[in-house]
């Protein structure tokens, strides 16, 4: 069973209808709310535990590509994801009588490269890579049994991308964001879905994956010592 949550009731109910046409009745449900509301997010976990015996997968998907509302973007894209991760640890962690599972952070390729026309959005996606490197570490996995991984979609045909042009800090930045996104290969949502299924099955905790141009790629996060060199020994004055 999949539980979808978000602020758009009409879109959420439509998604449930589409899923149940494919997978049968009583396979999906929608709860209207906002990931910035701690009580709402906690209540969704409580409902899942009461009705279905727990949560196996949290797909941390909340995100805004709207630098005009940069403070709300930071709250939603970073704090909302951290909130979801902490709630997952509480309700899913083996150290809290849970079964373990997986938390998938929906980052972006612009969490691994710039999107100069939407710098706040890109910054938030870089932050999500940081949540995976930290929350996905053996220290947390060994305690909770929860794998924390990142999915970094390339340009995927969704309303987030098609509606991004007029939502950046000013018109010049919006034009640059549109130009940058248009320069990258695009894909339909089914490619991302197939990638997510593979990642959910096989990805070790703390790993980062790209789904771009209908390809699944593994990202090797380098050790900082392997990519740095001494310029000057400051003890020499």
UniProtKB/TrEMBL annotation:
GO terms for molecular function: 15-hydroxyicosatetraenoate dehydrogenase activity; 15-hydroxyprostaglandin dehydrogenase (NAD+) activity. Keywords: Oxidoreductase. Its EC number is 1.1.1.141, 1.1.1.232. InterPro entries: NAD(P)-bd_dom_sf (IPR036291), SDR_fam (IPR002347). It catalyses: prostaglandin E2 + NAD(+) = 15-oxoprostaglandin E2 + NADH + H(+); resolvin D2 + NAD(+) = 16-oxoresolvin D2 + NADH + H(+); (11R)-hydroxy-(5Z,8Z,12E,14Z)-eicosatetraenoate + NAD(+) = 11-oxo-(5Z,8Z,12E,14Z)-eicosatetraenoate + NADH + H(+); lipoxin A4 + NAD(+) = 15-oxo-(5S,6R)-dihydroxy-(7E,9E,11Z,13E)-eicosatetraenoate + NADH + H(+). PANTHER family: 15-HYDROXYPROSTAGLANDIN DEHYDROGENASE [NAD(+)]. Catalyzes the NAD-dependent dehydrogenation (oxidation) of a broad array of hydroxylated polyunsaturated fatty acids (mainly eicosanoids and docosanoids, including prostaglandins, lipoxins and resolvins), yielding their corresponding keto (oxo) metabolites. Decreases the levels of the pro-proliferative prostaglandins such as prostaglandin E2 (whose activity is increased in cancer because of an increase in the expression of cyclooxygenase 2) and generates oxo-fatty acid products that can profoundly influence cell function by abrogating pro-inflammatory cytokine expression. Belongs to the short-chain dehydrogenases/reductases (SDR) family. This is 15-hydroxyprostaglandin dehydrogenase [NAD(+)]. It comes from Diploptera punctata.
